[in-house]
C-alpha cells in the first residue's frame, strides 16, 4: 500500500481546482445543470456524481476514495458518526425474524442497537465470548444472517480470530461486519481476511484531533451500492463537507501519529508493568495478554488504548489516583492528540449507569502525542498516592 500517495494525492485531482493544494470545501447542498439531459444523467448516478449533497459531495467523495484505498476496499461511505456507520452496516443485512451473533462486550451503542432498537423490529441477537471460533459456530441458528465483530473490542481488548470467523461465516452464508476502530486500516486489514464490511468511528484516529464526530463503512462496490440506495440515503446520517475536509486534513498525519502512539504506549506499558501498584495490564501487544500471539498475527503494531487494574484499597483511592493525574484528561473517546483516562469508578454511584461488569479499580487509558517521559512521570506521582 502506497500510504503517502493515498493520504497526499489520491482523489484530489488538483488540476480541476486551480492547482489548490488543499482540497476545496464544496459547501453546497445542491448542484445545477445546463440542460435537462445533463440533469437526467446525473440523477441516474447519484452515488458517483454531484446532484444533491446527501448523496454525493465532491469534498466528501475525495475522503471516501482515500478511506476505501486505506482499507483495500472497492468503496467507502462516510457518515455523521461511527454509530451511524455501524447502524447502516448492521441494518443493511437484516429483516424481521433474522438472528445476529455479536461479541459479548461490543462498543456500548452497538450493543444497544442490537439489544434494544433492532429487537423492536423482530431481530434477535446472541452475545457471545468471541475469542473462541467454536462459540460463533455454536451460537448459529437457521435464521442467523450476521456476525457483528469488534477486534480488539472496547475497554477489555479481546480479539477474534478474524480469518477463522470470516471463513466460518462464508461457509454458512452469513454476512460479517467488523468494527476496526481500535486498530485503524494502517494496522489491521479485515477485508483482506475475508470480512464483508469494515466500520470505523472516524471520530477517533482517522480524524485524529478530537474536533469532530464521523464514521465510515468500507466494503465491495456491490454492497456499497445497496447500502447507498437503502440506509445511507433514507436515514441520511451524512457527514458535512466541512467535516470531510477536516478529516482529509487529519488523515495527512495518520501514519506518523499511529507510529508515535505505538512507540509511546510501549514505553508507558513497560513502566506500568513493573509497578507494584498495578495489578494487571490489558494490552494486546503486551506479552501477558492471553491473545498476544493472535494480536501480532493480525495487527502490524499496537495502538494507544490499554487498561489497568489498580492495587487500590477502595474506590476513594481510585478516585484520588485519577484526580491527581495532570496529563491524562478525564474524558471518553480516544485517538486525538491528548492522552486520556476513563476510570470505571466513574460508573459507580451513578444513577445512569447502575451496572457495569467491570470492577471499580479498572482504568482505560489512551496515550496521545505527548512525550512518553512526561506521561510516565505523571503516572508515577499519581500511583505514589495509592
Ligand atoms: C467511539 C466508537 C464508536 C462510535 O463512534 P461515534 O463516532 O462516537 O459515533 C463505535 N465503535 C467503537 C469501537 C468506538 O470506540
Q: How would you characterize the overall build of this protein?
A:
This protein is of the alpha/beta class. The protein is 39% helix and 15% strand. It has helices at residues 3-8, 36-43, 58-71, 82-92, 108-120, 133-139, 162-172, 184-187, 221-235, 241-251, 254-273, 292-298, 315-324, 372-383, and strands at 75-79, 99-103, 124-128, 144-150, 175-179, 197-201, 215-219, 278-282, 305-310, 329-330, 340-343, 362-366. A seven-stranded mixed sheet has the order 1-7-6-5-4-2-3, with helices on both faces. A five-stranded mixed sheet has the order 8-9-12-11-10, covered by helices on one side. Strand 4, helix 7 and strand 5 form a beta-alpha-beta unit. Helix 4 crosses helix 5 (108-120). It is globular, with a radius of gyration of 22 Å. The protein starts with a helix and ends with a helix. The mean pLDDT is 96. It binds pyridoxal-5'-phosphate (PLP). Pyridoxal-5'-phosphate is lined by residues 81-83, 86, 107, 150, 154, 179, 181, 201, 203-204, 213, 215. The site of pyridoxal-5'-phosphate has 14 residues, from helix 4.
Set down the secondary structure blueprint.
Elements: H1 3-8, H2 36-43, H3 58-71, E1 75-79, H4 82-92, E2 99-103, H5 108-120, E3 124-128, H6 133-139, E4 144-150, H7 162-172, E5 175-179, H8 184-187, E6 197-201, E7 215-219, H9 221-235, H10 241-251, H11 254-273, E8 278-282, H12 292-298, E9 305-310, H13 315-324, E10 329-330, E11 340-343, E12 362-366, H14 372-383
Parallel strand pairs: 2-3, 2-4, 4-5, 5-6, 10-11
Antiparallel strand pairs: 1-7, 6-7, 8-9, 9-12, 11-12
Helix pairs in contact: 3-10, 4-5, 4-9, 11-14
Bound molecules: pyridoxal-5'-phosphate.
Pyridoxal-5'-phosphate (PLP) binds at residues 81-83, 86, 107, 150, 154, 179, 181, 201, 203-204, 213, 215.
